[in-house]
Write a structure and sequence with these properties.
With about 325 residues, the protein is α/β, with parallel strands linked by helices. Helix content is about 40%, strand content about 25%. It has ten helices and 13 strands. Strand 12 and strand 13 form a beta hairpin. Helix 6 (about 135-140) packs parallel to helix 7. Bound molecules: S-adenosylmethionine.
Length: about 325
């Protein structure tokens, strides 16, 4: 039977125009490259969101209205290296909140690193990692009635197409009980000269991150992509607030998936969409929340208004 990875990749390459799902960026090399991206001077997203958690965690906590006597679950979707979350965890622990931290990630490697570093930095913290796709995990948390705070940081919602984001928010809303909260980190719509370099840095790390997807496909699906025959090409539309990353075929070429003898043809200049990064404002977010039982109760921004931490409540 074909693995989900193989099915998703082959289906994406059968699409017209061709696509590859961004969730597959994160093998061990992809995880390490993403950590590098987060430290790049051009990648303002992490710095802006980190500033919010580093300077305004107390403010966020007050908006969550958590009862200190009642244990709660802090569930993080797509936790990655948890750098920003750790600033938040520190304040929660310092203030003696009673909670369990449950980071969920598709990458077992990212979870192993995170768990190790949490054990070192926060001896007292009760942590349970969950490997999986957060769409699936939302179903599992439905039956758990412990009060919950969900963290969905890094503008990860922006990696979903608009219809997928709306569907995701409905699923999230349905998985929560009345009073549960969500901390949703979203990048704001801003000029091209700020946004585009974040996806096209001068050191070529984002390029390597995008091209690594082809390496991963070669290694895990016995394909024969010639990596140097593809280029990295990001775009950003200020009107819609949507950034897109593409891989572009530099020449007419064929790629064979030797595992099952499928051949894909690429024309010179043909683009494969690998990632979308939608930016949000209040209007877009609230229109997406319209079909859910999630309501925005607060918004906390960094000093440049580059990034927002929205606090949502399940009503
Ligand atoms: C862009 S990184 C952001 C990490 C972290 N939230 C942050 O803000 O720094 C995305 C993370 O989500 C994980 N991820 C992506 N798609 C996922 C999915 N569908 N289910 C679970 N985890 C996913 C990746 O493995 C990666 O660690």
């Amino acid at each position: 039977m074909k693995s989900q990875f193989r099915l998703d990749i082959e289906n994406g390459l059968k699409n017209s125009p061709k696509t590859l799902p961004s969730k597959y960026f994160y093998d061990a090399i992809g995880d390490a490259l993403f950590v590098k991206i987060m430290h790049l001077p051009e990648y303002y997203l992490t710095r802006a969101e980190f500033e919010i958690f580093n300077t305004k965690s107390k403010n966020i906590i007050s908006k969550l209205e958590i009862n200190k006597d009642q244990p709660f679950d802090l569930i993080e979707l797509g936790a990655g290296d948890g750098k920003k979350t750790k600033a938040f965890l520190k304040v929660l622990l310092d203030e003696d909140y009673n909670f369990k931290y449950l980071p969920i990630d598709i990458s077992q490697n990212a979870l192993d690193d995170l768990e190790q570093s949490i054990h070192k930095e926060f001896l007292k913290l009760n942590i349970e990692t969950i490997q999986g796709n957060y769409f699936g995990v939302l179903n599992d948390i439905k039956t758990n009635t412990t009060p919950k705070v969900i963290m969905f940081l890094g503008s990860n919602l922006g990696n979903l197409q608009d219809h997928e984001a709306q569907d995701f928010l409905i699923k999230l809303s349905n998985a929560l009980q009345v009073g549960d909260k969500v901390i949703m980190g979203l990048d704001t719509i801003k000029p091209k000269d700020v946004v585009l370099p974040a996806y096209n840095d001068s050191q070529g790390v984002t390029k390597a991150f995008n091209l690594n997807l082809l390496n991963r496909i070669n290694n895990e699906l016995e394909a024969d992509f010639e990596i140097e025959n593809f280029d990295h090409s990001p775009e950003y539309n200020e009107e819609t607030g949507i950034a897109k990353s593409y891989l572009v075929s530099k020449e007419d070429q064929e790629v064979t998936f030797n595992g099952d003898n499928i051949i894909f043809k690429f024309q010179k200049g043909e683009k494969i969409l690998t990632e979308i990064s939608r930016k949000y404002n209040d209007e877009i977010l609230n229109s997406f929340l319209n079909n859910t039982k999630l309501k925005q109760i607060s918004k906390i921004s960094d000093s440049k208004n580059y990034f927002n931490s929205y606090i949502l409540e399940r009503v």
